[in-house]
Structures are given as structure tokens and as C-alpha cells.
């Protein structure tokens, strides 16, 4: 088996039978971008709610633009997917106490569309930062296609507004997290999404009828159901780019099942990358073990 380092030029690895696999990293703290090394394909998920933690941050276009711009500049030629604020549920935003955000259903894109002034500021910051690198924008907790259409309309309107202010900007591709089971089952109806990324943390909790880190449910036992749903959904993706950024992607125990489901792009916490990279070269693209392993 060749050393991993000889195979990881620009983040492209190959399975034992020669199929290219991309490994990107997930970042929470934007400073983690400094860990982006040549062996990584790019940033598959930047969780912006770690940078924007209060209503004041959410209203600050200049501050957000500077944070996103720095990440994009540091990533250089490599693609970066920044996810819009996934507020609600386990991720509060200081100052939003007036919203019933403890309601489990009001989070992610639903909350952004319920408070469009928050979405509009973030859209402007992202549109402006997009000039400085290869940005894509990802929407959290999408359940219905019209949510993407409404957010794209917000981006269009804010791009026009930036144009009137003569501020440089660029429209990024807009894709979605696949982390709500009903969206996964209906993925072929999401024609307006530019790309898909599976969020297995939420997919698991919603499939298993458990809360995140629920002590009453061994959610790991739902992994076969999650894998089956992903395999079905990948077939519905109609040739659009598909990746996975939930924790399952960084756990070698699930790698065989995820390869068998058709996934070829894994976005993992930086610390998980070496283990996943070495596991990939011991497997065939259909998830079976390579001869001699
Ligand atoms: C997920 O749900 O798998 C995911 C990647 O998003 P988060 O963990 O931020 O909810
Ligand atoms: Mg999630």
C-alpha cells in the first residue's frame, strides 16, 4: 500500500481500485483554515454560527465580510463552502431570546426566512466575500424546494443593492444540507440546489426520533437506516455534486457503507482526515476490502 502522502496531492486520494476520492475539512472556528494543507481538497463545511454568535454580529455586514474573506483568501484556489447560520435547536444566538427558538422546528433556513433581516446581512457579506475566492453557500435544514428559491431571491435582491452601492460582489452557487429525512427522500425535486451535502448528525436524530446526544436512544443503531437513506438519495441527486459533512464521514467504521452508497467526497474535522485517508486506500470503491487487506 503506497504511503498516504504520495496519494493526497490536492486532496485527491484513490481507492484501492483506483477511484478518485476527495477529502475536505469542516471548520468551526475560522482560524482552523490555517490547518488547510495541500493534501486537502478544500473546506466542505464552515459552520458560520461559530463566528456569528449574537444578534449584533448578525447585523454586522463588515465584520462578517472580513471573516469570510479571510477564510477564502487563505484557501486560495481551493473551494470553500460556507453554511449560512444554523441558529435554533442546539445553537442559540444571543439576543434572539424573543424568538421561540426552543421550538425544535424553528431552526436553520426556517429561522433565516422568519427573520430575513439576518439572512440579508449574511447574504451581502457572502456576496462581497465571494470575490476573493471559490465560495459556495450552503443552506441548513432545508425541507422544501421553495426555501431555496426564497433564499436565492434574497441573494438576488441584495446583489442588486450592493450594485447600487458600487460594491464588488459575485453570486456564489447555492446548495443545501441534506439533513431532514423528507428532503433526502425527495432529493430529485430539489432542482434549484447547486449541490448537496449530507448532514448525518441531524439525519440520524430525525430518523431515530431522538434528540442530538439523546441518552435514551442508542442512535448509533440507526446507522444502517441512515446509510440506506443516503444510498437512495445519492441516486436521486441527478448528477449534481454530492458530499457528506456529518460526523459519520469522519468515522472509519462507516466508510465502507458510505462508499457503497456512492459517496466520493468526504468532509471531515481536520483531526479525522489522516484516519479516513488511510482507510480509503484499503477499500474498493464499492466498499469491499481490497485484496490483501
Ligand atoms: C449535520 O447535521 O450532520 C451537520 C454537519 O450539521 P451540524 O452538525 O452543524 O448540525
Ligand atoms: Mg446539522
Number of helices: 11
Helix content: 25-40%
Looking at the structure, what is the overall shape? globular
User: Poorly predicted ranges (pLDDT <50, ≥5 residues)?
Assistant: 1-9
Q: Bound compounds, please?
A: phosphoenolpyruvate, magnesium ion
Organism: Rhizobium lentis
Family: Belongs to the PEP-utilizing enzyme family.
Cofactor: Mg(2+)
Protein name: Phosphotransferase system enzyme I (PtsI)
Describe the structure.
Strands 1, 2, 3, 4, 5, 6, 7, 8 and 9 form a nine-stranded mixed β-sheet that branches. The protein is of the alpha/beta class and 293 residues long. It starts with a helix and ends in a 13-residue tail after the last helix. The protein has eleven helices and nine strands. Helices cover 35% and strands 14% of the residues. Mean pLDDT is 93; it is low at 1-9. Phosphoenolpyruvate is lined by residues 47, 86, 179, 199-202, 245-246. Magnesium ion binds next to helix 8.
SSE blueprint:
Layout: H1 4-7, E1 12-14, E2 20-27, E3 43-47, H2 55-58, H3 61-75, E4 79-83, H4 108-114, H5 116-129, E5 134-139, H6 145-164, E6 174-178, H7 181-185, E7 196-198, H8 200-207, H9 223-235, E8 242-244, H10 255-260, E9 265-268, H11 273-280
Parallel strand pairs: 2-3, 2-9, 3-4, 4-5, 5-6, 6-7, 7-8
Antiparallel strand pairs: 1-2
Bound molecules: phosphoenolpyruvate and magnesium ion.
